[in-house]
Structures are given as C-alpha cells and as structure tokens.
Design goal:
Blueprint lengths: L1 E2 L2 E2 L8 H11 L3 E2 L1 E6 L5 E6 L2 E6 L2 E8 L7 H9 L1 E6 L5 H6 L10 H5 L3 E2 L8 E2 L4 E13 L4 E13 L11 H4 L3 E2 L5 E2 L24
Antiparallel strand pairs: 1-2, 3-13, 4-5, 4-8, 6-7, 7-12, 8-11, 9-10, 11-12, 13-14
Length: 216
C-alpha cells in the first residue's frame, strides 16, 4: 500500500519472520554484544547478539533480547537465567571473523571458545570468563528478565559490576571509539565498521551534570 511515496505495512498482517526481516533492515547499525556465559558443568559459551544496547547509567545496565528457538531457550539465555551472570565483550574489526563463527548453532555440550580456539581471561566478580582479544569487557549480573510480545522474545537486563578497558582505547577518562574499531550489525549477512565520523557540539548536559564526560 502506497502512502505519500512510502510503502505502508500493517504489522498485524506480518508473521514473525517478516517482522524480523524488516526490523534488522530498519534498525541499523546495531551494536553487538558478544556474550560469554558458563553452564552448570562449567562449559563456556560464546555468542553474539545485536538486539542490544545500554538501558541505564545509574547503576550502569545493559539490555539484550534473545529469542527462543522452537520454544527452547538458547544456550546463552539458559546460562544467564541459571547462573544470573555473563560477560558482554565488544566485538571489533580484528575479532569479526571469529565472532561471526560463534553465531553458528553448536550443540549445548560444545564450547565455542574451545572449538574456535578463543583465548579467555578470568573475570574478577563473575564466573564467566572474558574474551581476551576484546578491548572492552563488561562483567554483568542479571537484574531481570522480561518476556515480551507473544513470548518468543525475552529482554535480559543486566547490571555491569565491572568494566575492563584496554589502555589502547581508554585514557583513564574517555573511551576512544575510533581506536576501538567496533563492528556493528546490518540487515542480512552484512556487518559495518564505523566509517565516517561526524563531530557536532553537545547541545545538552550529560547525566551527572559534568559536561564532557559522556562519549555519546
């Protein structure tokens, strides 16, 4: 249906697959949460999720959506629910290929980090380890899980209990996003780098009342 040059789609007539395809094409670029978790047997799971962002700053919290598959929780979701812990690692251009490989459907008994030879480093406050190659690693504990819509999607809100920041991208005050070289998700099989960066003066005061401390 055309409307002022646009195609209008009534979402009540869309099935889940069609809605998903539209969302991942419209909401771009999306940051990627490369999440490490540990199951009851101590097996480390690593998987990327791009329905992800920060949702609060006091205390710092992140939110990521994980859809179920055939009514069953994915490994990451199950581990987060059972242990209430995870680490959110930032994926970069340097880790793009191996990060992408962790999106494959490995059996629950197989550790992606072992299968792909991903180097890990112990966390300080939670059991799941951090991905050593990531310049930003955020140790998190589950704050709440909210089932959304028709029950296929669950939003997991986690509180960050520790940031680990590489000195290559963090000067003690600010994170240098350009030096970090993060990757983002687009629709279909596509990823993106930062590309051109635009500088505009801040027109509002950041949370906390101290101009200049926020990066975004």
């Amino acid at each position: 249906m055309a409307n002022a040059g646009h195609v209008t789609l009534d979402t009540s007539l869309l099935d889940g697959e069609a809605a998903y395809s539209l969302l991942i094409g419209c909401i771009v670029p999306r940051p990627i949460a490369w999440i490490t978790t540990v199951d009851a047997a101590g097996k480390v799971n690593a998987a990327p999720f791009s329905s992800f962002n920060y949702v609060a700053h006091s205390p710092p919290m992140l939110g990521f959506n994980i859809g179920s598959r055939a009514g069953e929780l994915k490994d990451t979701a199950r581990n987060v629910v059972d242990s209430r812990e995870c680490v959110v690692n930032v994926a970069t251009e340097a880790t793009l290929e191996v990060m992408h490989k962790t999106s494959a459907e490995y059996p629950p008994e197989v550790s992606e980090t072992e299968a792909l030879g991903i180097a890990l480093t112990p966390s300080r406050f939670v059991k799941p380890p951090r991905i050593a190659a990531s310049p930003i690693q955020m140790e998190c504990r589950l704050e709440r899980a909210l089932t959304l819509g028709r029950g296929v999607n669950t939003l997991y809100i986690v509180e960050i209990v520790a940031f680990h920041l590489s000195p290559e991208i963090f000067d003690g005050r600010r994170v240098d996003s350009a030096k970090m070289r993060p990757v983002a998700r687009l629709g279909g099989p596509y990823y993106a780098a930062l590309g051109e960066i635009f500088n505009r003066p801040r027109l509002h005061q950041p949370p906390g009342g101290t101009p200049g401390l926020e990066n975004g």
